[in-house]
Amino acid sequence: MKPRTIERFDLSADLYADGASRGNPGPSAAAWLVVPREGDIISDAISLGTGTNNRAEYEALMHGLLTARDAGIRIIRIHMDSELVVRQVTGVYCVRSAGLRPFYDEVTALLRQFSRWSLTHTRRDTPEIQRVDALCNAVLDRARDEGNKNKENERMVSG
């Protein structure tokens, strides 16, 4: 009797990642959207505190890769509107900023955990990029509104 062969199919997904900063540096946020070939879409966004836009872009990519990896994704197609991050990660540009080097190193280490990956520069008018951009802005708006509430409370206490 011939032994049964179990075929292994690598799970694949598209990752859309975006970072934003209001001011450079200023309040910043990261958002990502993982769209698997099979299964549920995963999206999230976080506040990063004060930082630069480029750092926020790298952080969005890192968190998106971690989310995809933890969901069992093995083949990842990444889409970002940050030309700098895309060109640095794909080797077209060198990473000259000492502040970005640790983020670049973390991203490249995460990419090695996937069986295949691609990273493409995607226009801002792509619906998925608009979605992660909106998630970033919602996080930044919420942080701003909470900051304004805290300032009002401080005035009431001291006034």
Q: State the separation between the terminal residues, measured CA to CA.
A: 87 Å
Instruction: Give the % helix.
Output: 40-55%
Which structural category do the helix and sheet elements fall into? alpha/beta
The SSE order reads: EEEHEHHEH
Mean pLDDT: 91
**The named CATH superfamily:** Ribonuclease H-like superfamily/Ribonuclease H
**Major sheet summary line:** 5 strands, mixed
What's the total count of β strands?
A: 5
User: Could you name the ranges where pLDDT drops below 50 across 5 or more consecutive residues?
Assistant: 4-8
Overall geometry: globular
Q: In CATH terms, what is the architecture?
A: 2-Layer Sandwich
In the sheet with the most strands, the strands line up as 3-2-1-4-5
What is the highest CATH level, the class? Alpha Beta
Question: How many domains make up the 3D coordinates?
Answer: 1
Strand percentage: 25-35%
Q: Helical region count?
A: 4
Structural description of this entry:
The protein is an alpha/beta fold and 159 residues long. It has a single domain, classed as Ribonuclease H-like superfamily/Ribonuclease H (Nucleotidyltransferase, domain 5, 2-Layer Sandwich), CATH 3.30.420. 43% of the residues lie in helices and 27% in strands. It contains 4 helices and 5 strands. It has helices at 53-70, 83-89, 101-111, 127-158; strands at 12-21, 26-36, 42-51, 75-80, 116-121. The protein has a 5-stranded mixed beta sheet, with helices on both faces. Helix 1 (53-70) packs parallel to helix 3 (101-111). Residues 4-8 have low confidence and may be disordered.
